[in-house]
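Show me any protein, keeping tokens residue-aligned.
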Amino acid sequence: MIKLIGWVIWIYIAASLVVRPAVAMVPEEIMEVACAEDEHCHYYETENVTSSCVHGLCHCFNNQTNVNVTCEPNILHTTNIIGGNCPCMLPHAECHQADYLCYCEDDYVPTIDRRRCIPKQVPLGEPCESDEQCLFSTVFSHCDGSTRNCSCDAGFLRNDSICLSQTKLRAKCDDRMSCTQHGQHKICLPEVGECVCEQGYVSANTSEECLPGRKLHEDCQDASQCYAFMGPGATCENGKCQCRVEYTIVTRKTKENRYSIALEKICAPLAEVGQYCTLNEHCHNGPEDEDEQLMECDHGECACRFGLKNKVPCSSTASSVKIKKILLCIILAMTGLQMHV
């Protein structure tokens, strides 16, 4: 039995070495920006230094000293892209001293081409460039393609800074009291003369009633109830609010008032390799309560952990972690058997 345990341990060590990515043995200080092919690394080549793409990262080699060196740009100029080297001259961009790269300020996000920083949240009626800007400010809103302003979704009407759900009958009204005869939790919008659901309530597809918004794992009848508090990635499945398959649960801090901050569970899209980030938590790609997320923020982009070549999804890491856990369980089980012999 002792020999058997010894063999299991040797198998575990060998498997750990096999599944461990080769790039993990490359010193971290010579790892540079992400790449897909050697052409992406020519920016670092000089007369004495060559650069190539190794396991998704640029690596530089000094031809005279025959040693690996830190990659440095061969042309020094002011950065005009978010995620580039400091100094940062773009409006609303700042230099992070930890990695000396340019990121957008806290309340801003980069455009798709990463040439500008735009506000993270935009109120109703204000100019926008993406739906996300509007949703950060107001639920049930989007960036209108024709006006390029934040507008309420179809089936919702604007009331100051929020979007309220229209009812199925769209009953007419003259004042706030005239809506009570059409059911509870309804108010009148005098400017349009129509009864709508009050804030925090939505009109379901199968009912004229205004149903309350619901949070994660709470009972629901319609997906719009979950959407009200958890965002467009939420759905009502088997009578409970949860996130759709392509979304994951994340905890977001919100201001209840000027003195306190609340935590709420929302459905955020699964992160993709290359997605902009400034913190590791921006790279969610699985359940929030997983022991170990498979992606991290590296040089302003979401990348697979442990130096894996960036492929979607980062399944190789997951496989190696599972293999290690299985082997560890085998060792513990064999040890338990030996103790009872």
About this structure: The chain is about 15% helix and 25% strand. Residues 213-268 form one domain. Residues 11-32, 316-324 have pLDDT under 50 and may be disordered.
